[in-house]
Amino acid sequence: xxxxxxxxxxxxxxxxxxxxxxxxxxxxxxxxxxxxxxxxxxxxxxxxxxxxxxxxxxxxxxxxxxxxxxxxxxxxxxxxxxxxxxxxxxxxxxxxxxxxxxxxxxxxxxxxxxxxxxxxxxxxxxxxxxxxxxxxxxxxxxxxxxxxxxxxxxxxxxxxxxxxxxxxxxxxxxxxxxxxxxxxxxxxxxxxxxxxxxxxxxxxxxxxxxxxxxxxxxxxxxxxxxxxxxxxxxxxxxxxxxxxxxxxxxxxxxxxxxxxxxxxxxxxxxxxxxxxxxxxxxxxxxxxxxxxxxxxxxxxxxxxxxxxx
Length: 309
Ligand SMILES: NC(=O)CC[C@H](N)C(=O)O
Prior knowledge:
By secondary structure, this protein is of the alpha+beta class. The protein is 46% helix and 11% strand. The protein contains 14 helices and 8 strands. The longest helix is centred in the middle third of the chain and has 16 residues, at 130-145. Glutamine binds next to loops. It comes from Bosea robiniae.
């Protein structure tokens, strides 16, 4: 039996000393100021035991990791009709790409690229004021993580509102195809605020537990989603969670995972563990460089890859 606590500490020690750390995202000004020397890792085991090391209590901007929870929320509202407006194929393009949208008539490839997440935000906005839609997601995150202190970093949300021209373009372009139903600025407001949720590795790993427990909050606890839905969300994370590096992530780590440009990654070992890792330096695809390496070390040592026997 692998001593997980020790493994988690060893990985954090290795990452602390790493020289090659990638580049922090600079296109969102507050993220450009984050110290790239930080690294945190938290593993929540199926029995509830928690192993954490490094800067695992430090808050970071979860950015695109929020897309997993926003998708869960949207599926709860509209069920499988969501798939009329969003595909479920890997895009093979960067997270903020627009190139496929013209040929595919405003239907994004999947819910984890920005275009897809904007449609999901549009679904979550239906029938609400933007403030209420955002509040609903924040409450959902707090419930999942069992932590009422989780907040939205307004400075990050405002910064993206002021500089997010690609997202503004994506939303307007899809509006032209009728796949954004609200005024684009309202849908964008919901999206920018969900990306600006600030969490620690511990909080994020806790929030991901329902995906390790087949849709249950915890063993013996209430259902968050059906078993089928949990499996499907995990499948999408595996195939689309790292954009045009999703294949490489599956190859190296072998777990459903979702990254964000804040440097966080949520990874799920079904039935075994929910894992959150954070290191702000990104690789060329906009995924945490050391976060990916740490997960590779973890699955190599534990055999948690979904492809392991
Ligand atoms: N990959 C990401 O984390 C991207 C999220 C970021 N808020 C953006 O829209 O650009």
